[in-house]
Write a structure and sequence with these properties.
single chain; alpha+beta
Length: about 160
């Protein structure tokens, strides 16, 4: 079974870059639903049924990658059944962010982003069993640091 890894992270996030852009920080992430997922009440069967309905990647729990550029945040949401496939991508420009909260803790970093009334919540674990990342802890902290500067700027 394939594991999440740096090569896939760099390739999938790299596909979202505009020519001349580069990432200041990238990391593995988990999307956390900000509202109750109806299908989660039905366990594994609900998860399978729920997978047939539209999902932007933030209404249910997913694995993915996040990359921060000088002016945006790019998210790659991985397919729940095959992590070598992209389920969705989301780009949020810093100018669209109405509020952001960043917490960099010992075991994970959490990021809450509001774009108008839409809330995005992601966690960046610092240790992932079985994953093939060289510096996930440092990468998670780098993403948190890159986004923390928005809390003190006029863009947030």
């Amino acid at each position: 079974m394939k594991k999440v890894n740096d090569a896939d992270k760099n390739a999938m996030l790299g596909a979202l870059l505009i020519e001349g852009q580069q990432y200041n920080a990238t990391a593995f992430m988990n999307t956390i639903p900000t509202s109750i997922d109806f299908f989660s009440f039905f366990g594994a069967i609900g998860a399978v049924i729920g997978s047939f309905f539209p999902d932007d990647g933030f209404s249910r729990r997913h694995n993915g990658y996040v990359g921060v550029t000088n002016d945006s945040i790019n998210f790659v949401i991985l397919n729940n059944f095959d992590i070598s496939k992209v389920a969705n991508t989301v780009k949020i420009n810093f100018s669209d962010i109405t509020n952001i909260k960043v917490n960099d803790k010992k075991t994970y970093a959490s990021i809450n982003i509001w774009v108008g009334k839409k809330k995005y919540f992601v966690q960046l674990p610092k240790k992932i069993l079985g994953a093939k990342f060289e510096n996930q802890a440092e990468c998670a902290s780098a993403v948190a640091a890159a986004l923390s500067r928005l809390t003190n700027s006029s863009a947030a």
